[in-house]
Amino acid sequence: MRPDGTLGSTAISAYLDRLSSADPTPGGGAAAAVTAAQGVALLSMVCNLTVAKKKFASVEREVHSILEQCESARRQMLSLADRDMEVFGTIMQVYRMPKSAPEEAEARRAAIQSALKASSEVPFELFKRCIAMLPLADRLEQIGNPNVLSDVFVGRYLLVAGLQSAKANVEVNLDGIEDRIFCEAKRSVMQAALDGLGERYGNLMVR
Protein backbone atom coordinates (compact mmCIF):
# COMPACT_ATOMS: atom_id res chain seq x y z
CA MET A 1 0.00 0.00 0.00
CA ARG A 2 1.16 3.53 -0.69
CA PRO A 3 2.13 6.09 1.97
CA ASP A 4 -1.38 7.43 2.58
CA GLY A 5 -2.53 3.89 3.41
CA THR A 6 -5.82 3.98 1.51
CA LEU A 7 -6.94 1.29 -0.89
CA GLY A 8 -7.91 3.95 -3.39
CA SER A 9 -4.28 4.94 -3.80
CA THR A 10 -2.94 1.39 -3.96
CA ALA A 11 -1.81 -0.38 -7.12
CA ILE A 12 -3.97 -3.40 -7.90
CA SER A 13 -1.02 -5.79 -7.67
CA ALA A 14 -0.04 -4.42 -4.26
CA TYR A 15 -3.63 -4.68 -3.07
CA LEU A 16 -3.86 -8.32 -4.16
CA ASP A 17 -0.52 -9.11 -2.53
CA ARG A 18 -1.78 -7.65 0.72
CA LEU A 19 -5.14 -9.40 0.39
CA SER A 20 -3.44 -12.78 -0.04
CA SER A 21 -1.01 -12.30 2.84
CA ALA A 22 -1.33 -13.43 6.45
CA ASP A 23 -2.27 -9.86 7.40
CA PRO A 24 -6.00 -9.91 8.32
CA THR A 25 -6.57 -6.55 6.64
CA PRO A 26 -7.65 -5.97 4.00
CA GLY A 27 -10.02 -8.89 4.32
CA GLY A 28 -13.43 -9.93 3.07
CA GLY A 29 -15.16 -6.70 4.03
CA ALA A 30 -12.71 -4.53 2.13
CA ALA A 31 -12.74 -6.94 -0.81
CA ALA A 32 -16.53 -6.70 -0.96
CA ALA A 33 -16.33 -2.92 -1.15
CA VAL A 34 -13.62 -2.99 -3.82
CA THR A 35 -15.65 -5.49 -5.84
CA ALA A 36 -18.71 -3.23 -5.70
CA ALA A 37 -16.55 -0.24 -6.63
CA GLN A 38 -15.39 -2.11 -9.72
CA GLY A 39 -19.01 -2.71 -10.61
CA VAL A 40 -19.94 0.96 -10.54
CA ALA A 41 -16.70 1.85 -12.32
CA LEU A 42 -17.84 -0.32 -15.22
CA LEU A 43 -21.20 1.42 -15.20
CA SER A 44 -19.35 4.74 -15.34
CA MET A 45 -17.44 3.49 -18.36
CA VAL A 46 -20.70 2.65 -20.12
CA CYS A 47 -21.97 6.14 -19.33
CA ASN A 48 -18.80 7.72 -20.70
CA LEU A 49 -19.17 5.71 -23.90
CA THR A 50 -22.77 6.81 -24.27
CA VAL A 51 -22.74 10.57 -23.61
CA ALA A 52 -21.77 13.09 -26.28
CA LYS A 53 -22.89 10.75 -29.05
CA LYS A 54 -25.65 12.01 -31.35
CA LYS A 55 -27.53 8.74 -31.41
CA PHE A 56 -27.96 8.89 -27.62
CA ALA A 57 -28.76 12.61 -27.41
CA SER A 58 -32.27 11.96 -26.12
CA VAL A 59 -30.94 10.24 -22.98
CA GLU A 60 -27.75 12.25 -22.50
CA ARG A 61 -29.00 14.18 -19.48
CA GLU A 62 -30.17 10.99 -17.77
CA VAL A 63 -26.91 9.20 -18.50
CA HIS A 64 -24.96 12.16 -17.09
CA SER A 65 -27.01 11.84 -13.92
CA ILE A 66 -26.27 8.13 -13.70
CA LEU A 67 -22.59 8.83 -14.25
CA GLU A 68 -22.49 11.31 -11.37
CA GLN A 69 -24.19 8.81 -9.08
CA CYS A 70 -21.78 6.06 -10.11
CA GLU A 71 -18.72 8.20 -9.49
CA SER A 72 -20.02 9.27 -6.09
CA ALA A 73 -20.79 5.64 -5.17
CA ARG A 74 -17.34 4.51 -6.27
CA ARG A 75 -15.64 7.00 -3.96
CA GLN A 76 -17.94 6.03 -1.10
CA MET A 77 -17.33 2.32 -1.60
CA LEU A 78 -13.56 2.74 -1.54
CA SER A 79 -13.93 4.79 1.62
CA LEU A 80 -15.95 1.96 3.14
CA ALA A 81 -13.14 -0.46 2.25
CA ASP A 82 -10.74 1.65 4.29
CA ARG A 83 -13.29 2.02 7.08
CA ASP A 84 -13.71 -1.75 7.22
CA MET A 85 -10.01 -2.15 7.94
CA GLU A 86 -10.20 0.49 10.66
CA VAL A 87 -13.10 -1.10 12.53
CA PHE A 88 -11.50 -4.53 12.31
CA GLY A 89 -8.45 -3.06 14.02
CA THR A 90 -10.69 -1.70 16.76
CA ILE A 91 -12.27 -5.11 17.32
CA MET A 92 -8.85 -6.70 17.65
CA GLN A 93 -7.90 -4.10 20.25
CA VAL A 94 -10.97 -4.60 22.43
CA TYR A 95 -10.56 -8.38 22.41
CA ARG A 96 -7.12 -7.81 23.93
CA MET A 97 -8.56 -5.86 26.88
CA PRO A 98 -7.90 -7.36 30.32
CA LYS A 99 -10.62 -9.55 31.81
CA SER A 100 -9.20 -10.92 35.05
CA ALA A 101 -11.31 -8.86 37.42
CA PRO A 102 -15.14 -8.75 37.15
CA GLU A 103 -15.13 -5.03 36.36
CA GLU A 104 -12.51 -5.60 33.64
CA ALA A 105 -14.53 -8.41 32.13
CA GLU A 106 -17.66 -6.25 32.05
CA ALA A 107 -15.81 -3.31 30.48
CA ARG A 108 -14.37 -5.67 27.87
CA ARG A 109 -17.78 -7.16 27.12
CA ALA A 110 -19.33 -3.71 26.65
CA ALA A 111 -16.45 -2.60 24.43
CA ILE A 112 -16.78 -5.71 22.28
CA GLN A 113 -20.50 -5.15 21.85
CA SER A 114 -19.93 -1.54 20.85
CA ALA A 115 -17.17 -2.51 18.41
CA LEU A 116 -19.29 -5.24 16.81
CA LYS A 117 -22.14 -2.80 16.26
CA ALA A 118 -19.77 -0.30 14.67
CA SER A 119 -18.26 -3.05 12.54
CA SER A 120 -21.68 -4.18 11.30
CA GLU A 121 -22.51 -0.66 10.13
CA VAL A 122 -19.77 -0.68 7.47
CA PRO A 123 -20.99 -3.69 5.44
CA PHE A 124 -24.58 -2.61 6.11
CA GLU A 125 -23.85 0.72 4.44
CA LEU A 126 -22.16 -1.06 1.54
CA PHE A 127 -25.19 -3.33 1.17
CA LYS A 128 -27.49 -0.32 0.90
CA ARG A 129 -25.27 1.41 -1.63
CA CYS A 130 -25.14 -1.69 -3.82
CA ILE A 131 -28.91 -2.01 -3.67
CA ALA A 132 -29.27 1.63 -4.71
CA MET A 133 -27.02 1.16 -7.74
CA LEU A 134 -28.74 -1.90 -9.23
CA PRO A 135 -31.67 0.04 -10.75
CA LEU A 136 -29.12 2.29 -12.47
CA ALA A 137 -27.47 -0.78 -14.01
CA ASP A 138 -30.90 -1.93 -15.17
CA ARG A 139 -31.58 1.46 -16.73
CA LEU A 140 -28.22 1.52 -18.50
CA GLU A 141 -29.07 -1.85 -20.01
CA GLN A 142 -32.01 -0.10 -21.65
CA ILE A 143 -30.48 3.22 -22.72
CA GLY A 144 -26.70 2.77 -22.73
CA ASN A 145 -24.45 2.22 -25.69
CA PRO A 146 -25.27 -1.35 -26.82
CA ASN A 147 -21.68 -1.88 -27.93
CA VAL A 148 -20.71 -2.14 -24.24
CA LEU A 149 -23.79 -3.97 -23.02
CA SER A 150 -21.65 -6.81 -21.67
CA ASP A 151 -19.95 -4.30 -19.38
CA VAL A 152 -23.33 -3.40 -17.90
CA PHE A 153 -23.87 -7.09 -17.19
CA VAL A 154 -20.46 -7.51 -15.56
CA GLY A 155 -20.93 -4.34 -13.53
CA ARG A 156 -24.27 -5.61 -12.29
CA TYR A 157 -22.84 -9.03 -11.39
CA LEU A 158 -20.07 -7.32 -9.41
CA LEU A 159 -22.63 -5.21 -7.55
CA VAL A 160 -24.61 -8.34 -6.71
CA ALA A 161 -21.42 -9.99 -5.45
CA GLY A 162 -20.68 -6.89 -3.39
CA LEU A 163 -24.10 -6.76 -1.78
CA GLN A 164 -24.18 -10.50 -1.06
CA SER A 165 -20.73 -10.29 0.49
CA ALA A 166 -21.75 -7.23 2.48
CA LYS A 167 -24.81 -9.05 3.80
CA ALA A 168 -22.65 -11.98 4.87
CA ASN A 169 -20.32 -9.63 6.73
CA VAL A 170 -23.24 -7.95 8.47
CA GLU A 171 -24.51 -11.34 9.63
CA VAL A 172 -21.10 -12.36 10.96
CA ASN A 173 -21.11 -9.30 13.21
CA LEU A 174 -24.76 -9.66 14.22
CA ASP A 175 -24.10 -13.19 15.42
CA GLY A 176 -21.97 -11.77 18.22
CA ILE A 177 -24.26 -8.87 19.18
CA GLU A 178 -26.52 -9.31 22.21
CA ASP A 179 -28.91 -6.47 21.31
CA ARG A 180 -31.69 -8.39 19.57
CA ILE A 181 -33.60 -5.25 18.57
CA PHE A 182 -30.50 -3.89 16.81
CA CYS A 183 -29.96 -7.18 15.01
CA GLU A 184 -33.56 -7.61 13.91
CA ALA A 185 -33.66 -4.06 12.57
CA LYS A 186 -30.63 -4.71 10.37
CA ARG A 187 -31.97 -8.04 9.13
CA SER A 188 -35.38 -6.56 8.42
CA VAL A 189 -33.93 -3.79 6.26
CA MET A 190 -31.75 -6.19 4.30
CA GLN A 191 -34.53 -8.71 3.70
CA ALA A 192 -36.94 -5.99 2.59
CA ALA A 193 -34.34 -4.67 0.16
CA LEU A 194 -33.74 -8.13 -1.30
CA ASP A 195 -37.47 -8.75 -1.60
CA GLY A 196 -37.83 -5.45 -3.42
CA LEU A 197 -35.39 -6.38 -6.16
CA GLY A 198 -37.97 -8.47 -7.97
CA GLU A 199 -37.82 -11.68 -9.93
CA ARG A 200 -34.97 -10.76 -12.28
CA TYR A 201 -32.51 -11.01 -9.40
CA GLY A 202 -33.99 -14.12 -7.85
CA ASN A 203 -31.55 -16.54 -9.44
CA LEU A 204 -28.56 -14.38 -8.49
CA MET A 205 -29.31 -14.10 -4.80
CA VAL A 206 -28.24 -16.37 -1.99
CA ARG A 207 -30.91 -16.00 0.66
Tell me what you see in this structure:
The structure is a single chain. With 207 residues, this protein is mainly α. The chain has one domain: Formiminotetrahydrofolate cyclodeaminase monomer, up-and-down helical bundle (Four Helix Bundle (Hemerythrin (Met), subunit A), Up-down Bundle). The protein contains 6 helices and no strands. The longest helix is centred in the middle third of the chain and has 42 residues, at 102-143. 34% of the residues are buried. The model has no long low-confidence stretch (mean pLDDT 93).
Q: What key phrases describe this protein's structure?
A:
mainly alpha, 207 residues, 6 helices, Four Helix Bundle (Hemerythrin (Met), subunit A), elongated, single chain
Shape: elongated
User: The biggest beta sheet, please?
Assistant: none
Q: State which percent range the strand residues make up.
A: under 5%
Gyration radius, rounded: 19 Å
The assigned structural class equals: mainly alpha
- Name the average pLDDT: 93
Query: Share of helix among residues?
Result: over 70%
What number of structural domains do the residues give? 1
Number of strands: 0
End-to-end distance, in Å? 35 Å
